[in-house]
Amino acid sequence: MTVLLLGESRPEDQPARGASAIRLVRVDYGAKIVRVLSLPPYLWVNTPVLSATAQISATALTLVYQEALQIGPGSDRAKMAYATDVLAQTLDDNFGLVPDHSISVKQGAFIDMIDALGGLSIDLPEDVDGSPSRFGYYSAGPQVLDGQAVLDYVSIYPAAGDAPPEEWERFERQNQVLRALYAQFTRPETLLSLPGLIRQFHQDVVTDLGLSQVLALACLLQEPDVSIEYLELGADLVTPGEGNILLPETDRIVAYLETEFLQ
Predict the structure, then answer these.
(1) Whose CB among 19, 43, 163, 206 lies 3.0–4.6 Å from 80's, allowing a Cys bridge?
(2) CATH 3.30.420.590 domain range(s) in the chain
(3) Residue 198: its pLDDT value, please?
(4) Rounded CA separation 47/86 (Å)
């Protein structure tokens, strides 16, 4: 099972982002392996699905979501579902990868979910100065961050001292948070509260996963011998273009997905 996981960006983000965090999650229940693949938001992609409706033939992956959100029909949830489907179709059109399911999270809901858990316990491996991005300073060591502080941390782009291209430094900060969330969500007390959390944040989290599928995944993640692998579409698979754009080495990306992610 492959799940497309999207975290919406802040409306004020500059440069603009539609989906600030884009992950593909591959779940192999039989082998007890979960692979989490980071995709660069500014990966340049062809957009045949947008060419007819928005006259956009190519754009950055993050802006696929943003453009589709603006033209999607219906309620906010319907627009999120439409934009997620468009981004999923774009991955298929460019790289032949078809997600089976999707989860999209509003950035406001992300803050509230962290706060509902009592904050996020995380051990930061090093100091991070987010002042170049107008965010705060984070000291190394174990600490509990509230929802706003976690969102600020994963939004830092760039931090002081980040080596270009800065996106991969940001991947690592986001993965630190994912590891901490994994540890927190697999605690027995959190699992017991999961159905209530799903009901509480129903309006701000859009997914086609059923409750039984969510609980099955939660149970797998609690298995002591489950393997969680964090992968990324590396800088060696793209060529820097103008601004923040990353031009894909498409054939090499397809080969990487087949050998490292989908295996």
Answers:
(1) 206
(2) 1-106+204-263
(3) 72
(4) 9
Q: Which class in CATH covers the domain with range 1-106+204-263?
A: alpha beta
CA distance 67 to 259: 32
Res 91: pLDDT? 97
* Per-residue pLDDT at 16: 58
Q: Which residues of the chain have pLDDT under 50?
A: none
Question: Left, alpha or beta for 12 (phi > 0: left; psi -120 to 50: alpha)?
Answer: alpha
User: Cα angle at 64 between 152 and 68, to 5 degrees?
Assistant: 105
SS3 label, residue 246: strand
What the block records as the tokens of 61 is 């992956």
pLDDT tens for 158-199 read 899 888 778 899 999 999 999 999 988 888 777 777 777 777
Phi, psi dihedral angles at 203 (to 5 degrees): -70, -25
Long-range Cβ contacts of 5-8 (<8 Å, 24+ apart): 5/102, 5/103, 6/65, 6/84, 6/87, 6/102, 6/103, 6/104, 6/105, 7/104, 7/105, 7/107, 7/110, 7/154, 8/65, 8/80, 8/104, 8/105, 8/106, 8/107
pLDDT given at position 175: 95
Residue 104's Cβ-count burial label (10 Å; 0-12, 13-18, 19+) is: buried
Separation between Cα atoms, residue 109 and residue 117, nearest integer Å? 12
Q: Could you tell me which of 14, 19, 33 has the C-alpha nearest to residue 223?
A: 33
CA 2: distance to chain centroid?
13
pLDDT given for residue 243 in this prediction: 83
